[in-house]
Amino acid sequence: RSIWLADYQPYSHVLDKAELCFRLAPKGTRVSARLHLRPSAAARGRHVLRLDGEALRLVSLRLDGQLIDLTPDPTGLTLPADLLPDAPFVLETEVLIDPVSNTALEGLYMSNGMYCSQCEAQGFRKITFWPDRPDVMTRYTVRIESDLPVLLSNGNPTASGPGWAEWHDPWPKPSYLFALVAGDLVACRDSFTTMSGRKVDLAIWVRAGDESRCAWAMDSLIRSMKWDEEVYGREYDLDVFNIVAVDDFNMGAMENKGLNIFNSKFVLADAESATDDDFARIEAIIAHEYFHNWTGNRITCRDWFQLCLKEGLTVFRDQQFSGDMRSHAVKRIEDVALLRARQFREDQGPLAHPVRPESFVEINNFYTATVYEKGAELIAMLKTLVGDAAYAKALDLYFSRHDGEAATIEDWLKVFEDVTGRDLSQFKRWYSEAGTPRLEVSEAWEVGEAGEAGVYTLSFTQHTPPTPGQKQKNPRVIPIAVGLLGPNGDEIRPTEVLEMTEVQQSFRFEGLTARPVPSILRGFSAPVLLARDSSAAERAFLLAHDTDLFNRYEAGRSLAREMLVAQLTGGADLRATWAAALAALIRDESLDPAFRALTLRLPSEDDLAQALSERGHLPDPEAIRSARRAAQDLLAGGLSADLPGLIAGLASDRPFLPDAEGAGRRSLSAGLLALQTRLDGGAAARQAFDAADNMTSAIGALTALLDIGAGGAELAAFAARWQQDRNVMDKWFMLQAALAAPDQAVELVAELAAHPGFDLKNPNRFRAVFGGLSANHAGFHRADGAGYRLLADWLIRLDALNPQSAARVSAAFETWPRYDPARRALITAELDRILATPGLSRDLGEMAGRMRAAG
Ligand code: ARG
Ligand code: ZN
Q1: What range(s) does the Peptidase M1 alanyl aminopeptidase Ig-like fold domain occupy (predicted)?
Q2: pTM confidence score
Q3: Which of 59, 278, 639, 749 makes the best surface tag, with the fewest CB within 10 Å?
């Protein structure tokens, strides 16, 4: 049942071109396919032909026009070698599929009366019999027959008439990039002229009524197209670019050639209904999917083990884009916070896997933070190691050498080796070995003889703990960006990149007149855990003085974390140092409000549980919550005289703009309002909620209220205003689940799941409610196991309809080995109950099995 990278074999045949015809009907769509095949050079002589196919009703099968009588097996169709010519031939199939019953949202399905497809990774085999693997690429001609007014597929439109439309995609592509949409949709249109003068018609297709919420996505698309030309020299290659918004979608969005399909929550936005975070995410995801046109589509993956080839690189590119559009420091801080919260958590638990996995049961379970976010970190490290100029050259070579191909990580690394002459075999371990390296640092200072300069030495030791299936780890190449500060806070050595390759290594800094304060891992130059015993005073010093904005933030974060860990484990009391340092930063109006807002944010309860378990302590969820809230109270108390003035100073009477400047102000304002709410019982937040003229401010105020157990009236008002709006109501469900008091969360979530607005078939709603529950650390981890039980009950229910979404949400259980024996027993019992469910999907079965195996 496991598929192995080591077993890769090229396909037996070449698919020269293909014609598809869809006669759409909700319960019986008829798909005819003509595949123009020939034996590949490698597989000359007679060879069986294997086609993938699942849940298809085969109506007819013809080889060069001749009917053949063959019965498919549950996963496909094998044509025996003696039937096949040793020359080009045409295979025609006709199948019936049932889009209405497709609740898995993979293949062709229906959402609110609209036909929609999702083929990555292996959904095309649920549409027709096909070599459904990314290294089989071909040119598609598609005909769609339906009475629906809008009929879309990949490539360029070639002809249409009443009840039909034809599309041709001139670019060879694998089946996972196929897409089809049919519905009663309206378009928001614009156009873009590429650098060589090609005029591209742009359209975002939405339900009537949503047209007014497309402007931001369109603007983001145009900026993405321009940016990819300017920064990577990549031009768009079709006459049209279409985006469709759909409410029922398993993931964020999909880069189908010329026809991107988006979860509607990542397209639709206006000031009233979307927060600044929504706007930023839309900008990033629009860019991400657009950038895939080159990194993913023009150059695709040879097999699914190479998923990071397109995802890591494309995430890296979208991060660069967002940094250019907004602030690089703020973007980096946000990205690292996400990496630590999701990927470090994954890497430290039973689901840890290499950026390029070696085996899988269900590939959909590997669209993970490790493949995406850590994959992007590997690109960032490569760029740091080779430098910007060599990176640009290597990318040019990658695009010219592999255009039109299905490539591998080896191909990717080879372009860097060829451009720089570097040997990247050690670097490659980052792709094959799972786990987060721990980097220990010690330092030495040798005072010079009278009149002579001193020498400062930094010594590093790297160690990566074992992960499932990988006991022994090898030393990695770690780029460590370091700068040195002098005793009064000026930078005495600018950033330099130390290249660590051994288990243990020292670096000397000569010619110093006084002992420096080191600023290590600037910009988070490698995805490692930095373990360094430094004093609270030193962290406060860096928080006040570091010239690297990321490390300045990092000093504040680590100071807060050490303070809270000490509170929870009976260590020294660091509260006064922390509160004073943070208050000084908050009051410093010369600093970007967005930066101050991020530094103000305390580590989450889950982050603290992770920090405790890294240090060998058992996290107590209730105690973590109390310590964290006590720290907020302390900070609020210390700032009480300043808060109203600071908040008022951040207000603006300009109309809402979703730009970085406005978002930063609103973000700091919301952080301060949350503190104020802890002092005034909610008076200021109620006022702010009533006065809010945009969703960001409304959600900020509502969050502050719910966090102190208030906000009932505001919740009701919110629901009354937004009940018709699915995407906005997801926020209503999510906030309640995530912010309920620990002893009420489980009951509340059970009620939300019984609410008439709850819809098991809509992944966003499920994620809002149950993702909300698992984000409620103390509520989910309630000592009697009720949180675990409730989640398992609903995962089992969802699995019967939508295995992929059930499997994703099940990762809420991945942290179980951190906790005390009683909680561990409760969680593993739920995993066992899931595993014992009759008819359990491959998706959820693999996830529960991997999590359980850690015991
Ligand atoms: N390639 C898409 C993206 O990163 C993700 C689609 C994943 N879908 C899935 N069913 N695994 O933008
Ligand atoms: Zn992607």
Answers
A1: 435-531
A2: 0.98
A3: 59
